[in-house]
Amino acid sequence: MELKAMSQYTSLLNPAVFPHLTVVLLAIGILCTAWFFDTCDIYKELLISLVASLFMGFGVLFLLLWVDIYV
């Protein structure tokens, strides 16, 4: 297979939106983390911590992509 016959890989997301996604996802994760200390129900705390960890995880992923550390 020749190199010219292959199609070039293009990302689903434009790299110009990585900074915006980073800030938004990390902000939502921090707000969920702050809201976590307001509750006393174990199930609600587990749900909030799950949501916060998902947002923080994707926020850190886009932070790494923003600074050109491709994972």
Automatic annotation (TrEMBL):
Q: Which PANTHER family match?
A: TRANSMEMBRANE PROTEIN 258 (PTHR13636)
Q: How does it sit in the membrane?
A: Multi-pass membrane protein
Q: Subcellular location, in the record's words?
A: Membrane
Which sequence ranges are marked TM in the entry? Answer: 16-37, 46-67
Where does this protein chiefly localize?
Answer: membrane
Q: Which Pfam families match?
A: Ost5 (PF05251)
Assembly notes: Component of the oligosaccharyltransferase (OST) complex.
Q: Which family does it belong to?
A: Belongs to the OST5 family.
Upper taxonomic lineage: Eukaryota, Metazoa, Chordata, Craniata, Vertebrata
| InterPro entries documented for this protein | TMEM258/Ost5
Q: What is this protein called?
A: Dolichyl-diphosphooligosaccharide-protein glycosyltransferase subunit TMEM258
What's the stated role of this polypeptide? Answer: Subunit of the oligosaccharyl transferase (OST) complex that catalyzes the initial transfer of a defined glycan (Glc(3)Man(9)GlcNAc(2) in eukaryotes) from the lipid carrier dolichol-pyrophosphate to an asparagine residue within an Asn-X-Ser/Thr consensus motif in nascent polypeptide chains, the first step in protein N-glycosylation. N-glycosylation occurs cotranslationally and the complex associates with the Sec61 complex at the channel-forming translocon complex that mediates protein translocation across the endoplasmic reticulum (ER). All subunits are required for a maximal enzyme activity.
Q: Which GO terms describe its cellular component?
A: oligosaccharyltransferase complex
Keyword terms of this UniProt record: Membrane, Transmembrane, Transmembrane helix
**Origin, by domain of life?**
Eukaryota
* Organism of derivation: Cricetulus griseus (Chinese hamster)
Output the GO biological process annotations, alphabetical, semicolon-separated. Answer: protein N-linked glycosylation
